[in-house]
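It is worth pausing here to work through a concrete case rather than discussing structure prediction in the abstract. The textbook approach is simple: state the sequence, then state the predicted structure, then interpret. We follow exactly that order.
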Amino acid sequence: MTGAKTTPTPTPTRLPARDRGSVAAELTLVTPLLLLMLLFVVLCGRLAGARLRLDDVAHQAARAASAARTVTAAQTDARATAESALAAAGVTCRELVVTVDTAGLRPGSTVTATVTCTVGLDDLSLLAVPGATRLTATFTSPVDVLRQTPSGQG
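Step two, the predicted structure:
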């Protein structure tokens, strides 16, 4: 074959004797740092996920409270809804506080639900994070303008 060009094949080079084993030593030094970075990413992901779920729980609690007919029922419904929504989302709270501002449940007013959850972080002890963190979410839901108020209320 005339005109065919051949490329030279590279010859393998050998590392000098003083550099042998340096990759293993570098990997030994870098592995703990990579594990710490991985645990930190897991921590950030868990906190972000819990925060998103808590926002949804506050939304559900405010909506349940705004549909109630009395202030007492609104507070009870908000707490029950928050507990069931957290259980369905797989979030375990060491301490759960649900506060509801009903503004009298007058048609056209708003109901604000604030959900505070203390989330445990004990399983990430290698990062030396505190044992728990407190997350809070608030949501406001309108009370239906066309609904009837129970007898005896404004």
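Step three, interpretation. The chain has a mean pLDDT of 84. The longest strand covers residues 110-120.
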